[in-house]
Amino acid sequence: MELFTRETIGNYTSDPYAKNDHKYSKEMQEVRKELRKLDQETKKDGGVVDWNRMLNDFM
Hints:
This protein is mainly alpha-helical. Helix content is 59%, strand content 0%. The chain has helices spanning 6-14, 26-44, 51-57. The longest helix is centred in the middle third of the chain and has 19 residues, at 26-44. The chain is globular and about 30 Å long. The two termini are 18 Å apart. 8% of the residues are buried.
């Protein structure tokens, strides 16, 4: 499964909490984990991921 798709970004942004990962397939859990890692690294560096722009880029 690709990391940056409309489906995966939409899924992550609608429910970004790791405690809810068990509700998703193993494949989606891995994608969510990777997106969360990127999101947290960006925030740690003082940045912000523009998820809305990323979603619009995949239309």
